[in-house]
Amino acid sequence: MISSGLVEKIRNEPGNLKYEYFQPLNDPETILLIDSWKDQESIDKHHASTMMANLAKLREKYDLHMKVERYISDDSGIPQSDQKFIRK
To answer: What's the predicted TM-score (pTM) here?
Structure first.
């Protein structure tokens, strides 16, 4: 993904806020992708782009499997009861 230049292209798409890979210390076979988008319209345009076909080819080539979890920002802020656990 990175060496193919695809990651950089995705990061430069309009509406992309974050596209980062992480690897758990205890599981070298797993990669976590965290991507963040400005809004649903930006995600929809990304999914409709030719880059998704390229992603699918790479997944097929390397026999990659995915699990997707979606998180939505809570703009109401962090509750006061949780503030004591956050070091700023």
So the answer is: 0.77
